[in-house]
Amino acid sequence: TTTSVAPAEPTGKIGESVQGRDIMAYSYGTGSDEIVFVGGVHGGYGWNTALLGYKLMDYLEANPTEIPSNVKVTVVPLLNPDGFYKVTGTTTADVDFDIIPDTAGTIPGRFNANNVDLNRNFDCNWQASATWQNKTISAGEAPFSEPEAAAFRDYVMNAQPKAVIAWYSSGNGTYAAACGSISAGTKSLLTTYAKA
């Protein structure tokens, strides 16, 4: 069922990047079952995922009745604002697409200001160095050593959402993430999201 509700106030700042840029979360709907969407984990390399987050926010604001009454949707459009800024010159949805370089030109924006790949700074099977495109890259000094990853961890641990969906710009598919076996609930969400 759906109900006509105004979007909730922005959840607000959930943390800051290495260079002091705000990491923001925005919530829509007032239900008890929270679903979190996160984009821009790879900053300027995955700039389109941040823009997808901003587009979802626009959609939810324009279509609040699409949110079921038992659901609250939280969007963290940009987890790596420093990497996004490095490529686009902004941390908002106001991006001039003509200035975004080709894929090779966006590689430096993949990492945060400490040159850490945030996607590899989370706790599941963490190791100090990782491989990406046959290159050794940094995963940080320890799990959640980077303020961006720690901020997201803290938000999720506090909110205890029913689901977290992270957007990545490459891969041509939907994938389930788990540290260990994938739960039946995650498989169901994956299938539903992929069909949509």
Query: How many strand elements?
Result: 7
Sheet with the most strands? 5 strands, mixed
Sum up the overall morphology in one term: globular
Arrangement of strands in the largest sheet? 1-2-4-3-7
Number of helices: 5
Structural class: alpha/beta
| Spatial separation of the terminal alpha carbons | 18 Å
Low-confidence stretches: 1-9
Residue share in helices? 25-40%
Computed over alpha carbons, the radius of gyration is: 17 Å
Mean pLDDT: 87
Please state roughly what percent of the residues sit in beta strands, choosing from under 5%, 5-15%, 15-25%, 25-35%, 35-45% or over 45%. Answer: 15-25%
How would you describe this structure to a colleague?
- With 196 residues, the chain is α/β, with parallel strands linked by helices.
- Helix content is 27%, strand content 18%.
- It is built from 5 helices and 7 strands.
- It is globular and about 45 Å long.
- The N terminus is likely disordered.
